[in-house]
Amino acid sequence: MKKGEQFQFTHPLNHVAFIMDGNGRWAKKRMLPRSMGHRAGVKNVKKIVDLCFYKYDIFACSLFTFSTENWNRPPREIKYLFKLLKIFFQENIQEFLEKGTRVVVSGDLDDKRIPDDVLTTMKDAIYRTKDCNNHIFNVLFNYGGRREIVAMTKKVVDQVQAGKLDARYISEATLKHFLYQPKLPELDLLIRTSGEYRLSNCLLYEICYSELIFVSTFWPDFNESDLVSCFKDYEGRNRRFGGIK
Ligand code: IPE
Ligand code: IPE
Ligand code: MG
Asked: Which of 47, 124, 141, 191 has its CA 20 to 30 A from that of 229?
C-alpha cells in the first residue's frame, strides 16, 4: 500500500468488535485519575467507530462498554462511566440518525442497579434509530457472554413450556434466534487493546469462528494506523471454518 492510499478489504469484514481496554492504565501512565482515561477512551470510541463505519464501510460494530463483572469497581468509577455513556448517546444520536446508523444495546437491561436516566437515554437512541439500516452500532452494556447464554436458555425453555417449540427440534438456528442480537452478521473480527490476552466474558457464543487480535496499545491511544494494521492482519488470516483452503 502506497502512502496516502486507502486500505481496501479483499476479504469481507461485516462485523468487528472491540474490547476497549486500558483506559485506567493510560491515565496512570500520565499520572491522571482513572476518570480521565475513561474520558479519553470514550472520545476515541467515536473516532474509531466513525472510521469503521464511514471510511472502511464495515456494516456492524460491537463495542464492550461495561461488563457484568465491572460492578466490582468502586461506585464512583461506575457512576462516572455511566455518565460518560449517557453523554455519548446524547451527543451522537443526531449524527447516527443522519448517517443511518442503528443503535442497539446488548446486555442485562433489567438490572435494577442501572440508573433510570442512563436506561432512558439508551432506549431513546434505540427507538429513534430503529429504522436505520446503513450500519449497526451494538453497544455491549452490562453485558456478559455467560449472562447472554443464560438469557437465551430461559427464552428457549419458556417457548418449550408454552408449547411453541418442540424440544426435539432445538438447533443452532433456534438458539441464535434468542441471542441479544440475532440479526447481526457473524462476528468476523475481535480486537482487544491493552495487552491482555483474554475475552473477559465478551461475546462467548458469537466468537466461535471470529479472528482474534490482541494489541498492546491502550484504548485511548488506539488510532487509525493501529486499526489498519489490525485490518491487514485480518486480511492475512486463512479462515478455513474447519475446511481446507
Ligand atoms: C476499559 O478500561 C474500560 C472499561 C472497562 C469500561 P479499564 O478501565 O479496564 O482500564 P485498565 O484495564 O484498568 O487499564
Ligand atoms: C473488559 O475489560 C470489559 C470492558 C472493556 C467493558 P476489563 O478491564 O473489565 O477486563 P479484565 O477485568 O481485565 O478481565
Ligand atoms: Mg481493563
From this structure: 141
Find the catalytic residue in 23, 70, 142, 201. Answer: 70
Q: Are 85 and 42 in contact (CB under 8 A)?
A: yes
pLDDT in tens, 53-84: 999 999 999 999 999 999 999 999 999 999 99
Residues 45, 62: Cα–Cα separation, whole Å: 11
Ligand 3 centroid – CA 39 distance (Å): 14
Q: Cell numbers for 71, please give them.
A: 460492578
Residues with CB under 5 A from ligand 3 (ion): 21
- Is residue 111 among the annotated active site residues? no
Reference 88, options 108, 70, 103, 75; nearest CA is: 103
Q: Is 70 a catalytic residue?
A: yes
21 lines ligand 2 (CB under 6 A): yes
Domain boundary assignment for the chain: 15-144+186-235
pLDDT tens profile 136-172: 999 999 999 999 999 999 999 999 999 999 999 999 9
